[in-house]
Amino acid sequence: MSLIHQVLAQYFGYNQFRPLQEDIVHSVMEGYDTLALLPTGGGKSICFQVPALAKDGLCLVISPLIALMKDQEEQLKEKGIRAAAIVSGMKKSEVEIVLGNCIYGDYKFLYVSPERLASDYFQEQLIKMPVSMIAVDEAHCISQWGYDFRPPYLEIANIREMFPNIPIMALTASATTEVRDDICNRLKFKPGYKVFTKSFGRSNLSYVVRHEDNKYDRMMRILNTIPGTSIIYVRNRKKTQDIANWLLSQRVKADFYHAGLDFQTRTEKQNRWMKNDIRVIVSTNAFGMGINKPDVRSVIHLDLPDDLESYYQEAGRAGRDEKPAYAVVLYNNNDLAELERKKITNFPEVDEIKTVYQALNNYLQIPLETGEGQTYEFDLLQFCANYKQDPVKTYNCLKILELADYLTLSESLFLPSRIKILLKNIELYAFQVERKEYEPILKVLLRSYGGIFDDYVRVSETEIARRLECDRKVVIDLLLKLNKFGILNYLPSTDQPRITFNCNREDIKYLRISKEYLEDRKNRFVVRADAFKNFITNNHQCRSIMILSYFGEENLTRCGTCDYCRELNKMELNEIEFENLKESIINHLEKESVSPHELVKQIQTIHPDKVTAVIQWMLENGYIKTDAGGQLTLVSKE
């Protein structure tokens, strides 16, 4: 058994790699810069974790998804692998300990956000680490042509120059051909680099699109027809709860999920769904990233995402066990109108952006020429209420300020309570003798949490209270007093989004927001939005072919399972026969209006049942209509 297969078996419990994984791992082991494009659920983490464990040294993992970084850190630790993550909200002393451990402590993985790379202190410590490879997750974020461009990703090229002789691996689940080339250029891949692309095709996943005025009824028909667990996506937090409650009234075990819930609540809901205690989770796009539930039988979109990239990732959470599954979009004319409105609301005017920037600095009380590197907990709704701002437009202003590299708006992240004892053993003993009232809690800490003198350890105030047989509030009060005395550092848990300022506050008249850049971003958004609009409104092409063509795949054949293909299959016609027959019907009706019976008689080259089936399909999809006299006529497409 080769080394990489030993690692795969020992740490991950697999006897063999999935398709392409082994080729990707070999590429990195041989020192090649490597771009891996694997669909959602394709096992991207294995591709960098296995070679990192097979190599000597540390793997630097760069990811914008803080929650996913923390999840992977915990999963690796559970396997006995030394891993660490530096995320916003950590105190300087915590960061210093993590960096020291990575320099001297034989750690295998360090997860960081791209924003961290620009820190001079971080770079000074990073160069001391035995870095063996760099893994860039969500690599499409480095491309200005991508749907989720993040300027801090551009810093990765500078980090790469610090380690010129190690390979870099870029991973993404969705990128067009243009974005793929841009990733390789911006990461300064060396000549001879390798690109591995697994087809974006999902043969077991049926794409279905329905124009529906009554979405709830159709949703229930889908859930009654397709057994098993389901994800229902909407774009509004209140709707998640409303729809979940409605499903409960219909005797469907359902729950709701969004980023505004506290960590414990989100975890409980997620775990209940993972264990099949609830069947349906109704969520915003906050749900699904990094969740590997293989037996999801349906993903239903009641609201529209902005682009095919987002849709593909969300829909792809169905059927990871490679058994039949369904991705369904239910839309109406209001949804199409909302997609059009976003072309305006997502791109506020420069003056509006400057107003939000000034209000934000005033709200956080940041003086001019200060603030660089500072992180603040941030309540968007409270800010908007204070300054009478529209939340949607304000959020988009903040995202543009992020693109301009003025600030970073992080996702909501739960950081558990952490403690580090500051005294040496003998000093702590002397304190316990002098202050007997603190002896019980200190004994519990020392007996329950190993390594508490060397590093920040995660603690549970509830568990400490149980062991002391007292109230949780009493424990928190004792820990705060010990913190004040300098006995330990106590960092209480938090679950708030954060804003980090990447540079000092500027006078708004010097704020550099390019109108040309905004216009370019808007134009690219429009192209992506129109591509998604075409996907849902185009009823005369295989859905899979539309998706795969968008991502640059060629020589495609019908999937045979989407709504379009299923209709063709019912007619027992191949695609060429269907298109020829449809064209023949159009040619006849361009000359004159006729009854269905007469039209079938006029087309004698194909069996009448097949002609009738295509006529019915064209009626249902709005190509032809029946007039008051019962004659078939063409529908104007103007």
CATH class of the largest domain: Alpha Beta
Superfamily (CATH H level) name of the largest domain = P-loop containing nucleotide triphosphate hydrolases
Tell me roughly what share of residues is in helical segments.
Answer: 40-55%
Which fold name corresponds to the CATH topology of the largest domain?
A: Rossmann fold
Distance between the termini: 65 Å
Architecture of the largest domain, according to CATH?
3-Layer(aba) Sandwich
Low-confidence stretches: none
Form type? elongated
Summarize the structure.
With 638 residues, the protein is α/β, with parallel strands linked by helices.
In words, what does this structure look like?
With 638 residues, this protein is an alpha/beta fold. It folds into five domains: 3-197, P-loop containing nucleotide triphosphate hydrolases (Rossmann fold), CATH 3.40.50; 205-330, P-loop containing nucleotide triphosphate hydrolases (Rossmann fold, 3-Layer(aba) Sandwich), CATH 3.40.50; 341-414 and 497-524, Arc Repressor Mutant, subunit A, CATH 1.10.10; 417-492, Arc Repressor Mutant, subunit A (Orthogonal Bundle); 563-634, Arc Repressor Mutant, subunit A (Orthogonal Bundle), CATH 1.10.10. Helices cover 45% and strands 15% of the residues. The chain has 26 helices and 23 strands. Strands 3-4-2-5-6-1-7 form a seven-stranded parallel sheet, sandwiched between helices. Strands 8-13-12-9-11-10 form a six-stranded parallel sheet, with helices on both faces. α14 packs across α16. It starts with a helix and ends with a strand. The model has no long low-confidence stretch (mean pLDDT 89).
